[in-house]
Amino acid sequence: MEPKKNPQLDLRRNSLLYFFVGMTLVLLMAYLALKWKTYYSDDSWDVGELKVDEQLIEDATILKIKLPDPPKPKIQTPPKIEIKDDDEKIEETVIESNDVNQDTEIAKFEDFAVAEEDIPEEIPFVLIENAPIFPGCENEKTEKDKRECFQSQMLKHIRKNFRYPEMAQEMGLEGRVSVVFTVQTDGSIENIRLRGPHESLETEAARIISKLPRLTPGKQRGTAVKVPYSIPITFKLN
Predict the structure, then answer these.
(1) From CA 31, how far away is CA 41, in angstroms rounded?
(2) In 12, 114, 117, 216, which residue has its Cα 20 to 30 A from 163's Cα atom?
(3) What is the pLDDT along the chain (238 residues), one digit of tens a residue?
(4) What is the 3-state secondary structure of the chain?
């Protein structure tokens, strides 16, 4: 017959409970060890707690500085006035008046220098007093009518002598040629300047202007001057 053990005396009965209790105690001891704090003893020389007696603070010394006295103003002695005897005779200068009166002589006409009129050598068409006159416009009464007649005759001259260049027709060239020429003091046409889209159109425009008749020159204050004039010539294919 096998002997039976008393369950109350079995050591493995509460082993798990003992294990948890032991682990709890170990953790509690470790926590207390980490949180344990120690403090140094009070040090009377600690800078953070150093207290200075207010009585040791010295008051600022008050210095009394004596400024020098301001300089005394210099008193100038008045000049001595000497009175001399009126022995010398003083001649007073008489200032004559320059006002014009009936006795004033009139300067002669030959004494005046007449300045020559400063007339520019070249004056634009819109600013000149008497514009150049196209042949056939001499009978116009006013200056405005003569200018309008000049422009209308210029347009007639261009239409009459206009020929479209063959090369420009073949190439389909079109455009406007700006023409500027100068009416000289003898009425001739010189200094022709052209600007257009192609050389052939410029050549034709120059040919038309070269056929202009001799004009009556423009005048400024009765003196013949050079007058530049500009006109556009348009080339357009039908």
Answers:
(1) 25
(2) 216
(3) 555 666 666 666 677 888 888 899 999 999 988 888 776 565 544 444 445 455 545 555 566 667 778 888 777 777 777 776 766 666 667 677 677 676 767 666 565 566 566 778 889 998 999 999 999 998 888 999 999 999 999 999 999 999 999 888 888 989 999 999 999 999 999 999 999 999 999 999 999 999 999 999 999 988 999 999 999 999 988 7
(4) CCCCCCHHHCCCCCHHHHHHHHHHHHHHHHHHHHHCCCCCCCCCCCHHHCCCCHHHCCCCCCCCCCCCCCCCCCCCCCCCCCCCCCCCCCCCCCCCCCCCCCCCCCCCHHHCCCCCCCCCCECCCCCCCECCECCCCCCCCCHHHHHHHHHHHHHHHHHHHCCCCHHHHHHCCCEEEEEEEEECCCCCEEEEEEECCCHHHHHHHHHHHHCCCCCECCEECCEECEEEEEEEEEECCC
Sorted by where each starts, the structural domains of the chain and their CATH numbers stand as 143-235 (3.30.1150.10)
Structural tokens at position 231: 């006109």
| Residue keyed to tokens 């004009």 | 215
Residue 172 corresponds to which tokens in the numbers above? 């389909």
